[in-house]
Every structure is written in C-alpha cells, then in structure tokens.
C-alpha cells in the first residue's frame, strides 16, 4: 500500500495506462494458457505498438520479440510484467531505466501475505515506481483493460474484439476476478468501456482509476467495487471529480462486516474501515451504494442511461405497466418497500389508457395491459406514452414476464426519450438471458433490471441524491 | 371465488386435471397463434387421448376433430375451453352433460371486472361445476401443465418436449404469466415438474393444487406464488400436507402492500389479507417465504436438493470457499447480514487446506483458493472436502466468479453428497447463463443461487424452520 499522503494522480498521469501508445510484455510466451501468452493474445485488437520481450523466442504469433527491455526500438509507454515474483524487482528497475511510463505486475506474494518480507517486497516496488515517476498497477492483479481502444494490459479473458456501444459503464475494481465477473454483463448487452482492476495498489489505486475516468469521453457511468484504500480522502476527491463530470457512480464496498473485513486483510492487506463512514462518504459524493453485487452493473447501467435526465428532489412516484396483473402487484409491493409512491393516474390519463386496453384490462396504476399486449404490442407503447405524459409520475416501471423480443421495443425507448423520464424494464422471466434480454439492454432509453427490488432501490437512490 | 366453506379437495379429486386419461379441446383451431391452436400444439408430447372439438374442421394436424362434445367416443377426463366468454356457460354445461370430470376456462371477463355481471357470470360457472362434481380451473387462466406426463391444458409457451430430471420443482401460481415466467428457469437447467396456474379460482385454487402435489412422486419441492385465497385455512391444510409428505415449499405472497392489495382486487378479485398474518401462517407450516420473485425458484430448487439432508436447529455456521478473495469477502458480508456465522476452521482443517493451497492462498474462512483454482480445479475439490468435513460448518458457500465449466463440477457434487451438507454455488458472473450455468444447476447435490443475499436467506430459512 503506498503512502496515503500523496495527492490523487491527475487524470493525465494515467494516460500511459489507459491510452498507451505502446505496450511491452516481459515474459511474453507461446505456451498456451501461460500468463504471458494470454496477455499477448489480449492485445489482438490494440492498434498501438506491441513489444513482446522474451529471452527464448524471436517471434510469437507473427510479432517480433525483443530479448530485453533495453533492446526495444523506443521507450515503451506501458510494460506488462508476466514473470514470477522473484524477477519482478529487477525487471521493474529495468522498466524505469528503459524510460517506461507505467508498469503492471501480475505476481502475487506481496503485502497480501501479511509478512514483513511481503510488505518489504511491495515497498521496494513502490519505491522504484515513485523514484522514476512511473505509474505501477499491482502487484497481485489480473491487469486492466480499455475496451474502447483495445489496450488490455492483463491476462483476464474478456471477449476478444468486444467494443462498447454508446452510454458505456466503466468498471473499477480492486479485485481482478470481480472485475472480470462484472464485465461479463457485456455478454447480455451491457456496454462496458473499461475494466480497471488495482490489486494490491502499491501505487495506482481505485481512487486514481476513478478520477481518470472523468476525462474518458466514452464513459457515462462507473461501477466501483473495492475493499479499502490508503486514503478515503483521495477516493472522495476522485468521486467528486467524476460525478462533477456528469458521470454517476454506483459502488459496492467489500468488507462491511467484521468477518468480511478480516478476510480483506488476508486478501489485499486492505484496512476496510468503518462501514457507516463509507456509506456517509458515498452519500456526500452522490455515489449510489449497493450491497448486492448483482445489482452493481444494472444500477450503473441505469445511471448511465439516465445521466442526462432531470432528477426529482423528493421521493419519487412511479407508474407500473405490465401485461401480467400478478407482476404489477409485485411491483407495487416492491415500490412500497422502497418508499416509492404509486399514485393513481389523472382522469385524463385513465381515459387514454382505457382507450388502448381490452375491457378486462385495468386503466389504473398498476396498469394491467393483460396478455393482449403480446398480440397487440402497440397498445403497450400507447399506454407507456400516456403514463409517462402524466406529471404525477417520475418514471415508468415495466415488469417483463416472458423472454421474448417484442416488436414494440424501439418504440418504448423512443417514448421514454420523448418524455425525459426513466423507463425501467424489469426482466421477471427466469430465462435470465432468453430472447429479448440483449435487445432490451441495448435500448438507448430503457434500463433493464433483473429484480424489482434492484429497480426500486435504484429509482429511489437516484432521486435522493444530495449534491 | 368459490365458497370458502368447502373442504380442501383430496389429491385424487384433481387426478382428471394432473393425470387425465384424455383431453378434449373445444375451440381447437388451425389458425396460427390462436388459443385453440396453441393449446392443441401443447399436447404434442401427451400420450393420452386428444379430442379436438371444432364445428368447422374435420382434422387438425393429423388429429381427427369432433363437431361437438356429445360426439366424442368416450367421456373426456378434462375439457379445455378455448372459446370466447359468451359461449363458456353453454359449453361448460355440455362438458357436464358429456361426463367430463374437469374443465379449464381461459376466457376473461368474470370476477376480475369487479362488476355485478362479472361476479354473477363466474358464480354461474362455479355452480355448473359443483353440481356436476366436475373440477374447474379458471376462468381468466392460461391453464396448467404436468411436464412429467406432457398433459398441458393451456396455451402458455413451455418448451415443447421438455421433461424434468430428478429432484424437480413444481410451480403453483395464481397468475398464469408469472407461472410461465418462473417456469422458464428450466432453460438454464432447473428441473420443473408442474406449472399449475389457477386464475380466478372459481373452483380449484392454489390450495387444492398445492395439496395435490403431496402425492405426485416427481415433485421434490414447491414454488408457490399467489395473491389471495378464499380460505387461508385450506391453504394452511394443503401446505401442511405437502410439507409432511417431505416436499418443502417456498412461497411469495403478492399484494403484501396496500398498493399491491388494491391491484390484486383488480386482477383476480382477490382479497389479499393481512401480510403479517400470511407470514405467520407460512412460518407455522414451515414454508420459506421470499419477497423477491427472482429468488423463488432458486430457493425452491435449493430446498428440493436438500430435502433429504438433516437440518440444523440453530442459526447456521458456514464455510466460504472461493477462487477470488474479493468474492469471499462479499460472501462473509452477506452471511453477517443474515445472521449466519463464519467461524474459523479447526486447526486440522486449516492444515488440510494449506496442503492444497498456494502460499498466497488463505487457509482460513473465507478460504481463498486464488485464481490457481482455475488451473488446478482438484485443489478446489480438496478444499471443499476439508471444509465440509469440519463439524464447525453446516454448509459450504462457493462464490463462482467467472462463467465457465469447471472439470471439478461432478466431484464437488459428490463431495457435498458424501458429507450430507448443502453446497451452494453462488453464480457471481454477470454472464447470467454463460458457460457452466446449466451444468452447475444440473448437479445433484449443488444448489445454484444468483445472489449472495438469496443464498444466505435460504440457508438461514432452512435452519430456522419450526415444525
């Protein structure tokens, strides 16, 4: 853990990590499954210069190898150290000597051992980086990825060739495994721009990564997961900077419990701090806190899609529209649990609804469009339009009972955009990634949740934001 | 809603519904998408006699049609009425005259309208059924399915040809859409035996369906969702019968809030009753209550897989094993939230763990097997074995960070079985149905959850059961 006293790195200081012009890989390998081979393969979509460094090989997969860092044709922006811990200190010094501006260390066996030797070894790495003004990510990290540019300095298995669409979420995580698990939401259509994992944070930590995202244009919101940081003040400063840049943040704090905090000390040698103080800090900065990991990405994606929408200042009132009466009832129950009102529509809205519903539908709130909405999807769009037009409602929640691609999807997104209010589609089918899941997620103005509680918590948190 | 006074139907009384020897479909059709066509197509895998009834057609898809019920070669066990509301009363009387023992009415426009006419129309149907001692499902229902026999008397789109594997969950739901949405969990490997939806419950209600499952051999646990019943006493009797038969029940009660209760009156004319009294009733019967729909099926599947395992009588203590330190920390946090202890392993267990872990792993609880568990899956099995063997732990929770099929899956299931303790694999990857999801769900002795909170709540509920 580096010194808590140093200031937050300016966003530009992390450019050699997030937007490197060149990447060298020490320990580049052709052995399938090795970290060196995986790290090299992960750069397939990167357009900058790649310099594999190998004492043994002259070429890997068509890329020319260099025997050592000092033999590179130019000073590398970022060096990935895919080598055992025993060689790290020497090679990190060589990075500095070669003029590298950043380095990434995968190896474990440092501060997380909680031994004097482990701490001393990590301090030595910090010192080398600090004295060379070279940014260091790790040790004990899987690396990080800018999925916009393809600059993936790590060995985690992101889908090759993945590129985010508009309105992307950046993931910042101390834990590499958690960063990877979260980023796999991309498989059902969530747009992910960065996966920045910090590991032991001997130099760069999650606060620095967070602050750097303020100037990354593709990022619309951030999902943050961490155990502890050297300086809560630095994290607060970073959070304020990124929120002020119009990029909302959802966060999960690991180690809130005594049992979890003890485990965190064994994991990354982090002092997790007092949970209540962290919650206060989040509230001060306008960070939306979640405790269930599964809700982190969907909450961040919701914040991304709603980043430009006006926010109510009091507890919100919502309309509920469903093709299933039962799911409408559950949604009303969930709203109540989260302090969200579900008032009845105005007389005018009720008349508009009645015009689009069958006689056995319910032109109320919750509005039951009945199973007829399946055969007549346009009626669902007209009802959504009527409910969103009613000033009594701040948002529309649409429990989605069956996995299917509705022909009304695009129209729902357009209707939501035209009213400037969130439309939340809650995927109630237990076919969690069945037909329609990706299509719904990709709608520009529709947010997808996989639980009513997650949806209501996000709607509530969005409106209670203090800033 | 039928009279609250009548006794619960004996399980055998529902045999014409759940195990009919023959099914007639009035309104059978060859028009794609029509209810009559969908109901007929849903009987593709049913081995009993099928009698399509159509005034217009002499044959549909190779099946001989009959012009009217009185023309059938034998009295049908069950008649499906896929016809408009206007004709229902007349045809239901014809069902009785033809000697049918059960009928299913899809049509809407009855008690859920909350008009005198709607209530009277529904009462008329109840009376016809009662006087003929003919069981009636509906009106305002999508029907129901026995997926074991293929007897699907409804128009909902279950996967054709689906058959449950061992240890199946039966779904009982008032709402048809909800029953379908829940049953789609079969798409990621959950074994579903029945989807029994009751609609307006003019005669048969969720209590009768629940009781009937006590004698269905393929059912290992029940997932129950309902708004209200005519008689809570009948539901309690049914719940006691099915639980006494060794089939645990997980339930979600719709309309717990005032807003939800009002919506329920508009949906199926149900009086939802007082939420706290329902919770008391569930506790008395040993029903595990959930409030988040997404947790209903995974909780029921967990109860199914653990139906034969001994249950601790005090709050449980669990071991946590993960290949990601961060996810172990989150699991410890979640356990604490649910009043579940995470004690340290015995010295002997810690030594056994250390023998299977790399130096930077953590032979503690949570046990961090590190990313090495990916390249050496056997180490994960050995650690699971050591933790489950330790009498300090009632169960093992395994947060699973990345979507992948581990070669150790079968061995994990065997280890759990050998110790007679639950092993819960919590799918933390946001690739919710990615590689490994189906394979994990199909493990005989491994329960899959998609959130730590859902897992901990189920573990806690299982052990606090009062009976």
Average of pLDDT of chain A = 93
Number of strands of chain A: 19
CATH superfamily of the largest domain in chain A: NAD(P)-binding Rossmann-like Domain
Largest interface comes to: A-B, 84 and 84 residues
Strands ordered across the widest β-sheet of chain A = 9-8-11-10-12-13-14
End-to-end span of chain A in angstroms?
A: 31 Å
The major β-sheet of chain A equals:
7 strands, mixed
> Which structural category fits the helices and strands of chain A?
alpha/beta
Total tally of structural domains of chain A: 2
What does this structure look like?
The structure is a homodimer of 467-residue chains. The first copy, chain A, is α/β, with parallel strands linked by helices and 467 residues long. Chain A folds into two domains: 11-304, NAD(P)-binding Rossmann-like Domain (Rossmann fold); 311-463, Succinyl-CoA synthetase domains (Rossmann fold, 3-Layer(aba) Sandwich). In chain A, 37% of the residues lie in helices and 18% in strands. The mean pLDDT of chain A is 93. The interface between A and B is large, with 84 and 84 residues.
Structural descriptors:
homodimer, 467 residues, alpha/beta, Rossmann fold, 2 domains, 5-stranded parallel sheet, 17 helices, 37% helix, elongated
Produce a short descriptive summary.
Two copies of one chain form a homodimer. Chain A has 17 helices and 19 strands.
Secondary-structure map:
Two copies of one chain form a homodimer.
Chain A: H1 15-18, E1 22-26, H2 35-41, E2 49-53, E3 59-60, E4 63-64, E5 78-81, H3 85-97, E6 102-105, H4 116-131, E7 135-137, E8 143-146, E9 151-154, E10 168-173, H5 176-183, E11 192-197, H6 206-212, E12 219-226, H7 232-244, E13 249-253, H8 258-268, H9 275-285, E14 288-289, H10 293-305, E15 318-322, H11 325-337, H12 347-356, E16 367-368, H13 372-375, H14 377-389, E17 395-400, H15 409-419, E18 423-427, H16 437-441, E19 446-449, H17 452-463
Parallel strand pairs in A: 1-2, 1-5, 5-6, 6-7, 10-11, 10-12, 12-13, 13-14, 15-16, 15-17, 17-18, 18-19
Antiparallel strand pairs in A: 3-4, 8-9, 8-11
Helix pairs in contact in A: 3-4, 6-7, 7-9, 10-17, 12-14, 14-15
């Amino acid at each position: 853990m580096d010194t808590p006293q140093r200031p937050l790195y300016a966003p530009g200081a992390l450019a050699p990590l997030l937007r490197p012009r060149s990447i060298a890989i020490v320990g580049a390998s052709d052995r399938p499954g090795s970290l060196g081979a995986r790290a090299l393969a992960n750069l397939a979509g990167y357009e900058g210069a790649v310099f594999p460094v190998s004492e043994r090989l002259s070429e890997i997969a068509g890329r020319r190898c260099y025997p050592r860092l000092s033999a590179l044709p130019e000073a590398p922006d970022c060096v990935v150290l895919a080598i055992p811990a025993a060689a790290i200190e020497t090679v990190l010094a060589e990075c500095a000597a070669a003029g590298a501006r950043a380095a990434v260390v995968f190896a474990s066996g440092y501060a997380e051992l909680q031994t004097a030797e482990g701490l001393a070894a990590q301090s030595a790495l910090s010192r080398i980086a600090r004295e060379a003004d070279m940014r260091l990510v790790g040790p004990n990290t899987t690396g990080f990825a800018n999925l916009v540019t393809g600059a993936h300095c790590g060995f985690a298995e992101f889908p090759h060739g993945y590129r985010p669409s508009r309105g992307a979420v950046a993931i910042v995580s101390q834990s590499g495994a958690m960063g990877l698990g979260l980023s796999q939401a991309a498989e059902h259509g969530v747009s992910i721009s960065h996966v920045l994992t910090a590991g032991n944070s001997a130099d760069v930590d999650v606060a620095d990564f967070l602050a750097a995202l303020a100037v990354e244009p593709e990022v619309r919101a951030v999902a943050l997961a961490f155990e502890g940081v050297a300086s809560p003040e630095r994290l607060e400063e970073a959070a304020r900077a990124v929120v002020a840049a119009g990029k909302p943040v959802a966060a999960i704090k690991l180690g809130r419990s005594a049992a979890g905090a003890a485990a965190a000390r064994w994991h990354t040698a982090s002092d997790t701090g007092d949970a209540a103080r962290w919650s206060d800090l989040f509230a001060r900065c306008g960070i939306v806190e979640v405790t269930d990991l599964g809700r982190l990405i969907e909450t961040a994606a919701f914040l991304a899609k709603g980043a430009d929408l006006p926010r109510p200042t009091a507890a919100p009132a919502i309309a509920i529209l469903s093709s299933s009466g039962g799911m409408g009832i559950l949604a009303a129950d969930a709203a109540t649990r989260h302090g969200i009102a579900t008032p009845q529509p105005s007389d005018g809205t009720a008349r508009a609804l009645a015009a689009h519903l069958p006689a056995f539908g319910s032109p109320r709130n919750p509005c039951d469009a009945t199973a007829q909405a399946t055969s007549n999807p346009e009626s669902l769009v007209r009802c959504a339009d009527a409910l969103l037009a009613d000033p009594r409602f701040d948002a529309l929640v649409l429990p989605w009972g069956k996995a299917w691609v509705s022909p009304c999807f695009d129209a729902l997104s357009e209707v939501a955009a035209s009213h400037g209010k969130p439309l939340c589609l809650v995927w109630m089918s237990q076919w969690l990634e069945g037909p329609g899941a990706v299509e719904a997620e990709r709608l520009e103005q529709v947010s997808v949740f996989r639980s009513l509680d997650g949806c209501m918590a996000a709607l509530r948190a969005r409106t209670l934001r203090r800033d």
